[in-house]
Description:
The structure is a homodimer. By secondary structure, the first copy, chain A, is an alpha/beta fold. Chain A has helices spanning 11-23, 61-67, 83-88, 90-111, 145-162, 190-199, 219-231, 234-237, 252-263, 277-283, 293-297, 306-316, and strands at 2-6, 25-26, 29-30, 33-38, 51-55, 74-77, 116-122, 167-173, 175-176, 204-206, 213-217, 242-244, 248-251, 271-273. In chain A, the strands form four sheets. A seven-stranded parallel sheet of chain A has the order 5-4-1-6-7-8-12, sandwiched between helices.
Amino acid sequence: MNILIIGGGGVVGQKLAQSLAAEGRLRGRPITRLTLADINDPPLVDASFPVSAARCDIADAQSVAQVITEDTDVIYLLAAIVSAHAEEDFDAGMAINMFGTYHVLERCRALGTTPVLVFTSSIAIYGGDIPDPLGDHSYPNPQTSYGGQKAVGEILINDYSRKGFVDGRAFRLPTISIRPGKPNRAASGFMSSILREPLNGQTAVCPVEPDFLHYYLSPRRCVENLVKAANLDAADLGGNRVMQMPGRTWSISQLIDAMTAVVGDGPAKLIKWEAQPDIKRIVSGWKWDIHAERAEALGLKSDESFEDNVRYYLEDDKPAV
Amino acid sequence: MNILIIGGGGVVGQKLAQSLAAEGRLRGRPITRLTLADINDPPLVDASFPVSAARCDIADAQSVAQVITEDTDVIYLLAAIVSAHAEEDFDAGMAINMFGTYHVLERCRALGTTPVLVFTSSIAIYGGDIPDPLGDHSYPNPQTSYGGQKAVGEILINDYSRKGFVDGRAFRLPTISIRPGKPNRAASGFMSSILREPLNGQTAVCPVEPDFLHYYLSPRRCVENLVKAANLDAADLGGNRVMQMPGRTWSISQLIDAMTAVVGDGPAKLIKWEAQPDIKRIVSGWKWDIHAERAEALGLKSDESFEDNVRYYLEDDKPAV
């Protein structure tokens, strides 16, 4: 198995690479090579098989052609311009999120090798005046350009798969929390930082009310699901290659209570509550009554509790003091 | 009102041009100019205002920039590579249906004039294993590349409208019948030809069973709806600019009985019944339990009876002997 992770330098890409390195196998066969492609050189991971880094700008079809080759068996397409960033810079969002996906699909089509393609869509495709509950077969009504570009990606993945150009599978990721590292430009950034920064002994700002509900998944469980996603047989997916990845809905209060249950009440006191209208405008268009029936039936899983998410952060990601 | 019809040489484009010429007004103001753009020079129509023809290939952004100008008030984007054609020639479908729509939207964005854009989507965006009934807020699950490309267009129309780049409104057209003229490369072509050819005294082939159900609209009523579509206020459309255009569901038998009711039983005897697996494979993925609640609430209409569709053909389109 020759595996390519596009967006291999990101939080999920790096954790996925570590997981593949630990596992050594995918789709029932040994991994023979792993390439981490990103706009900058991504950090490598230790593995029993060769791991290399590649610079790739998916907005550029030529650059895509250099990293997807005839012997690429599995492609993870994780690279994206995230929500608030794509809202500010419309061209960047279109170039990466829509045309980037198109370039990857076209490269696969040109090769004629029908690689497995795992695409990360987002719950940002839901929104507006659509009745709850939401899930695999809900009308995509995104309220951001990021969500719109991901919705386009879903449609293209399905059509290129139907035509046999790729063996695609697309999953709408819940918001990943607790996301380690620096904040990115996602409007959802606070949903990690209000926990991560206090757990690291720093203050954080919460821009929404304590009863704000949202749909979450831990990075650890997300990566487990992405590995399962590649392992699925095309026959199990049927004609629609797009589905919701399992997550769970919690309020901000529940996140904070879970943190307090695991580490005591000190960190919660480091959260400052300050309304941020720009962020609230974006995230209030997002949906939380979301269900992942198809993916759950295929063996993908949500977290058991948000206490688990806190523990995963402490075990996997908390920087040494 | 300076109006541009892209696809102005097509059946619907020509009838729309005739209707606008007869009406002389749109969006409450006199029409000052009408441009019919198409890949070939479209026939002109007589009007009290200037009417001109323009060659335009929407696959080419430069060509689009030549026909959409600062003083364009209303754009009808009707041009498309139809279903069976896009299924055979994937590149042509992507170039016209997806990139053509993108080029029109990008040109509007570059101008900064927020023109009204009426886009014709299709019931081909529905399909597969999605529960009936279908309508405005159903999950798009197209079973053809044509349907996929139209579904992408819908998402882009919504996002470009949300951003204020265009004042878009997109309508999923029912199958237009009785469509005059020569057959095109739509898989739905027989749904007109089994009536049109016999009404013209010629034989025709029906490739499906008499109980095959489908969702139809006459060309005359379609054009009336497209005029209303441009006249709608943006405020009435809300955040989702995409909706089903009203049609009605009839079986093949009902179409033929309607023809017989209007003109007697001679023409029905000119229909030959011959299964065509390629056509049947495409059209059996199409849906017919379709409802157009939003558009009906906004005043758009379906036909009263299929007898009307037959009469409209005789009045508007039947070639003189």
